[in-house]
Amino acid sequence: MLTVHLRITDAQTYRPTPVRLRISSPDGQEFPPLGRSREFPTGRNEDVGGHLRLGRERWWYIDGTCEVPLPAGVPLRIQVMKGPEFTPINETVVLGTGQISLRLAIKRWTNSRADGWQTVDTRCHFLPPHTAWLEAQAEDIAIAHLLAVPQPFLAHDGNTYITIPNLLAFSGQTPALERDGCAVVVNTFNTHPVLGKVALLHAHRPIFPLTFGGVDATDDWSLADWCAQCHRKKGLVVWSEPFEPLGGIIGGEALVAALLGHIDALEVTGGPRKNPLLPWVYRLWDAGLLLPLVGASGKESNQTPVGAMRTYVRGPSWIAGIRAGQTFVTAGPLLTLAHDGERVRASAQWHGDATTVEIVANGQVIASGRGEVEATVLPGWVAARCTQPAFAHTSAIPIGSPAPPAAAVAVLQHLIEQTREWIATQGRFTQPQRQQTLLARCQAAVQRLTTPHGADRKT
């Protein structure tokens, strides 16, 4: 075996650049850099960061240089990834006798940052900030939001303790770590086992309690309390895992909060779901609430890359861009959507090649094609999406102010009624006024939903 000095540079700057690396031989053997293990855990909160397992493939993150023991005279497959704007490297090399260095360059096929776009991962967990920075750099993410969340820990003494990884690194409105155009910001992920989950971003301070409710706690709090505190501190509230069933209901208080204007954006992840997300998003948009989409990896183990689903946002700041709906989420393809009067135009590319794109208006696909398509739209909303070979979706653009379809309103109203019933019959309240406040919010959300043009449009 030869100890080979490997260097991966950016083809434009000629400087070493962080990347995701995999080196393998024809017999399937994989070769980790020195200082890294060939085998590593892949469970939730198990030594998260620095390495990745996707299916049967193991990958390692490097800062652009490393030393790796490799055999000579054997065809070696070298794979290098750096997010969707770089052309992946997939080369076969054979090292000569005594060869101790290897140089490769990875090249951008586009540069969205030059056009004013920022790439953001709005939620990942359990990574140390420096490791989060390395992985974000390697995946071409400009801002990674590392969210503190309570996590049970079984200690050697036989007791289970509640820990909160990264809480002491909380940075709120300033990066915990920033250099070379990449920032890691630490905020909080606040959850209730039935009423919903929210990512509280850009808050001035941690917002407590991080969780309430459950078997051993009361429900004398609310998501609206969290949202109000976050907004008072000039933060951004993201509804995480929206419309997933929790405790037998869908939507929960998070839907109520969204209808009352307390939620700023809807999270899209690439992980498995019990409920398909898009039909619910389209119903919400049909009802007139055009909440923007943001992409999050939801990373909590070594089986998900930072930026697996990411947000592209354009505006004077990432927060202003999200609030204005200037976003698209993607697992790879880059989307554009523009409208000029009655016509809209959408395009999609991935690694420099055209891919299939669809224009969706009021929940229906009205145009589909490869590369670029355009269509005439009726009043309502319009968005663009890709479903093959990977998912991407823009936020919705409002077209006029039509009355919400009765079917969408009825479905969402039914969800609110389920939440109201849970609060009235199953919620555990020691303060009756808290229960009454939540019930009143449900009533206000129904009124907002059913009043013609009552739900504010996000523009």
Molecular shape: globular
The CATH topology name of the largest domain reads: TIM Barrel
Terminal CA distance reads 60 Å
What is the C-alpha radius of gyration, as a whole number of Å?
24 Å
Put simply, the count of helices is: 7
Low-pLDDT windows of residues: 454-459
Describe the structure.
- The radius of gyration is 24 Å and the shape is globular.
- The strands form five sheets. It has a 15-stranded mixed beta sheet that branches. It has a five-stranded antiparallel beta sheet with strand order 3-4-2-6-8.
- Helix 3 (252-259) crosses helix 6 (406-425), helix 3 crosses helix 7 and helix 6 runs antiparallel to helix 7.
- Helices cover 18% and strands 36% of the residues.
- It has seven helices and 30 strands.
- The protein folds into two domains: 2-108, Immunoglobulin-like, CATH 2.60.40; 112-331 and 391-399, TIM Barrel (Alpha-Beta Barrel).
- By secondary structure, it is an alpha+beta fold.
- The model is unreliable at 454-459 (pLDDT under 50).
- The longest helix is centred in the C-terminal third of the chain and has 20 residues, at 406-425.
- It has helices spanning 129-138, 223-232, 252-259, 278-286, 318-323, 406-425, 432-450, and strands at 2-10, 19-24, 51-54, 57-62, 65-70, 75-81, 86-87, 89-94, 101-108, 117-124, 143-148, 151-154, 160-163, 177-179, 182-192, 196-201, 236-240, 265-268, 293-295, 310-314, 327-330, 334-340, 343-350, 353-354, 356-361, 364-370, 372-376, 380-386, 392-394, 397-399.
